Amino acid sequence: IRVQASTLTALKELALHCARGAGQLSLERMKQPFTVEYKTSASDLVTAVDKEVEKHVVETILRHFPDHGILGEESTFAGDPRQFDTLWVIDPIDGTTNFVHQQINFSVSIAVYHKGEGLVGVVYDPSRDEMFYAVKGEGAYLNDRPLRLERQVKLEEALLCTSVFWNKRAEQMGIDLIVKKLAGKVRGMRLLGSAALEMAYVAAGRLDGYVSLSLNAWDFGAGRIIVEEAGGRVTTMTGSPLPFDRKSSVMACNPAFYEELQHYLTLTENDMADKGAT
Ligand code: 2AM
Ligand code: CA
Ligand code: CA
Ligand code: CA
Q1: Known catalytic residue: 50?
Q2: Does the beta carbon of 96 sit less than 6 angstroms from any atom of ligand 1?
Q3: Of the residues 99, 120, 147, which one is the last residue of a structural domain?
Q4: Which of 122, 130, 165, 276 is the most buried (most CB within 10 A)?
Q5: pTM, whole model, 2 decimals?
């Protein structure tokens, strides 16, 4: 790690502070009516709360670290995030559809990267007051309990999770095949609707694996660090290291069945090629 321990602690404290503040603000705003807009379709929502919460987090970060960059889903940060050595990757509300419909099962995701290396990851579930976080080299925690994936899970015993978008593009990409192929190999499949929370649950052993064909950097930026620090494995579906500043497929799981899961996902990719998907 190329940053000082004191800096690392300051980054962790600020990330935790921002995540808690953002979560509390979301809960507060949920009590009153708020506007909901369609981004690209009826299944792609953004609310006034997403924007307000991101603005609040961005302002707080820049007050402490004016020379840091921020990559956030709602693009509140002015400027090119990729020009900065230290980059905060944030999703103010991960699971906006859940925020609107269920009023539970959404999270705040905040990660800090330095020259592409993940230093701090925080995923906060305000409804349950659960703070999942990790600092590179210092382990992962849920509130103050250390998270360690010590149990060896077999694929047939695994509870797996995925995010799907039942739209034309998802079908072209063969998401139907992913679910069908994996469903027969595992104990159960779940769709919770907040990728960041799903990855945090993998770190906590509540889920054994998470797979997605396509996520944005702010969806997996924090969850990836938390899963790795808990002893899990996180890569793209083809086994490459995850990027930190752009879209990617994601697989995150208990290390015991990583190779086996990858094998099935590789088959799925071949099937996708057969279908003419790119
Ligand atoms: P969001 O709520 O921040 O938009 C839902 O299954 C999960 O996928 C959530 O983490 C959601 O994040 C994310 N998501 C929503 N639309 C998406 C899209 N078009 N591509 C990738 N991820 C998306
Ligand atoms: Ca969104
Ligand atoms: Ca998201
Ligand atoms: Ca979001």
Answers
A1: no
A2: yes
A3: 147
A4: 122
A5: 0.95
